[in-house]
Every structure is written in C-alpha cells, then in structure tokens.
Amino acid sequence: MKKSKQQICKFVGCNKQVYASKMKFCGEHERAFQEIKKVGGKYVLGALTFIAVSTLKKK
Length: 59
Ligand SMILES: [Zn+2]
Fold this sequence. Notes:
This protein has 2 helices and no strands. It is mostly helical and about 60 residues long. The longest helix has 18 residues, at about 40-59. It is globular, with a radius of gyration of 12 Å. It starts with about 25 loop residues before the first helix and ends with a helix. The chain binds zinc ion.
C-alpha cells in the first residue's frame, strides 16, 4: 500500500483530511483557526496548547 500524502487535521479529536498538504487543519478547523488568530493572543495560546496536546496524543 502506498502511503498517502494527505495529512490529517491537527485539531483535537478531528481525523478529517486536510485539503492541501501544506495546511494543518481541515477546512472547518482551518477557518476556525484563522478566526482564533484574529481574535487575539490569549486564544491563540490556548489553540496552540490544544495542538501541542493533540500532537503528543497522536505520537
Ligand atoms: Zn478538523
């Protein structure tokens, strides 16, 4: 079996494939992440923590 280049959304609990390999999230979470970045650093920090936890869990 060939390994797919498609990547999986980094968001916690989400196993959807991302649209483009350079993206880290599926369409839904990519949009949410952009909104979070607009809102402010406090939320960005929370999101990054979520991502870090997610990455660790997937290891
Ligand atoms: Zn997702």
